[in-house]
Each structure stands twice: as structure tokens, then as C-alpha cells.
Amino acid sequence: HADTAMYSAKEAGRNNYQFFAPEMNARATERLRMENDLRRAIERNELLLHYQPQIEAASGAPYGCEALVRWIHPERGLIPPDQFIPLAESTGLIVPLGEWVLREACRQQVAWRRAGLPDLVVAVNISALQFHKPDFVTKVSAVLAETGADPASIELEITESALMQPGEDLSARLLQLVDLGLTLALDDFGTGYSSLAYLKRLPITRLKIDRSFVDDLPGNAEDAAVTSAALSLARDLGMQVVAEGVETHAQHAYLTERGCHAMQGYLFSRPLTADAFAKWLAGFDACAHTPAPGTARPE
Ligand code: C2E
Ligand code: MG
Ligand code: MG
Ligand code: MG
Description:
Layout: H1 2-43, E1 47-56, E2 62-73, E3 77-79, H2 85-91, H3 94-114, E4 121-126, H4 128-132, H5 136-147, E5 154-159, H6 160-163, H7 171-179, E6 183-189, H8 196-200, E7 206-209, H9 211-214, H10 221-237, E8 240-243, H11 249-257, E9 262-263, H12 274-286
Helix pairs in contact: 3-5
Bound molecules: ligand C2E and magnesium ion (MG) (3 copies).
Protein name: EAL domain-containing protein
Domain EAL: 31-285
Subcellular location: Cell membrane
């Protein structure tokens, strides 16, 4: 009996082992597969950019767009960035991926210019890891030269958390980007811990208020307080504010009344393919600058 009991315990132990190991293996295997797929996605041309219009609050006219990456996986279909940017960041793949995004956005800006579209700002997201690479400025400069993009029409969106990393004084690096003729926006503003003193020293043109603060406007008192504070801070620092995730007329009205410069959100348009964006813009011009909020169609 003693032997049987020991045998059972061993069996149970082995079963326990077998219970956990395959699951962990499956997760690791899945992650590895995704990593390999992502590594090849750039070479295989599986990435593409969508462009979400940005509207000037005062005039209601579009002044630019944000380039947002998508992955068309051969088996899984369209994968949104939230499902692969974190993996790209943890594996370092964000560096080549981010460079692809910048090059593609610059290439598109040149194509639109050649097609006679009005000169619009194309905003490009830059990940912290990318921004902190010592050769980042050199890379950006090379992509601008290679594509012939007008730096005045390219805006780099750098997250608040990327700028709040200790150590290095990043204002010098930001100034080098400004010297290239680019404009800089602080993305996801309000989610980090930027000190006002630090912000003041940075050559940043625009603050992008994070969607999480816009969602519950105008009803939510805390979000209203954060938004108002951001707007008055921006005014005092001579920066502009872009509100993200504007979905309702009430949010639009609330932000406009408080001097928000620009907006982006489903109320105006979802992110669009390059062709759909050009058509949207043409349709907008045909309407003689009457924004048609609420006519946004799904991507
Ligand atoms: P983000 O830079 O803050 O971009 C704004 C996100 O909000 C986009 O999601 C956009 O589609 C979404 N959005 C805009 N308006 C609305 C709205 O009215 N309602 C709602 N519910 N959502 C709205 P998306 O395209 O899924 O991108 C998510 C995040 O992935 C981006 O946040 C950015 O952090 C990251 N990302 C996207 N493309 C790139 C890229 O090329 N490089 C890097 N490093 N990150 C990227
Ligand atoms: Mg952004
Ligand atoms: Mg943002
Ligand atoms: Mg975000």
C-alpha cells in the first residue's frame, strides 16, 4: 500500500507538472511564433498605415492626420497595434518597425503632395525605445533625405513617459529634431508625471490630451479638471492642444469653448486607408469647409 501511495503521489506530481508545462509552453510558443511573424511582417509587406484626420477646432477644417500602424497577418487578418506594439517593444523589433512607419508616412506625404492634396501635417508615433537609440536623429534625418518629405509637414508624437525617463537630458535631442524642421507633439498627455518645470524647457508644439480624459467629458468632474488644467497650462507655455478620442458633439463643444486647438476622433472620422483619406479630404473640400461630424464609417 505504501508503494501504491508513493506511486500515486509521484503520478500526481507528474500530472501537476504536465498540467502546467504544456500551457506555459503553448504561451511561450505562441509568443515566439508571433515574434517570428512580426520579424518577417516588415519584409513581407504585411504592415500598413491608416490615417486619422485631425481637425482645427476654430475653423472646423482638417489640418493633418495621425499615421497609425496595422498588421495584416496572413492567417489572423487585421491585428490592431495594441496587440503587437507591446511585443515589438519588448523584443526591440519596434526599432525597425518604427523606422518602416516613419519612412512609409514620409513616402505618403510626398505622394499626396505630388497628387495635389493640400499640405497637411502627418503625425507619426515614436516609441520610447526608438527615441532613446543614440542614432535616432541620424536615422530620421536619413529617412527625410531619402523620401524627400517636407519636414515642416511631419510631426513626431513622443509619449510623455518616453520623455520622463531619468538620466540623459532629452531636451538636446528634441532640439536636434526641431533643427531638422520637424514639429513635436507630446502624446498621451496626462498619463505620465511630467513636471511643469521640465515641460517648459522642451521644444514641444502640441500636447495631445489622452483619450481617457476625453471619454467622460463633459460630465466627469475629474476629467473636466484635468482637461481644463492642460488647456491653461498649454496656453501659458505657448503650446497647442489636440484632444484625442472626440466622439460626441458635447465633447466637441466643451473642448472648443475652452480653447482647445485641435481634435481627433470618431466624431470626425475613424482612421482611414491612404486612398480613403484622400477621398474624405476631397469630400470635405466639396462641402466648403462644413465638417460633417458623425458621418464616420468604420475602418
Ligand atoms: P495613440 O497614439 O494615442 O493613437 C490614438 C488611438 O486612439 C488610435 O488607436 C486611434 O484609432 C484611437 N482613436 C482615435 N479616435 C478615437 C475615438 O474617437 N474613439 C476611440 N475609442 N478610439 C479612438 P490605434 O490605431 O488602435 O492605436 C493604438 C495605439 O497604438 C496608439 O495610441 C499608439 O500608442 C500605438 N501605435 C499606433 N501606431 C503606432 C506606430 O506606428 N508606432 C508606435 N510606436 N506606436 C503606434
Ligand atoms: Mg499618437
Ligand atoms: Mg495618444
Ligand atoms: Mg495611447
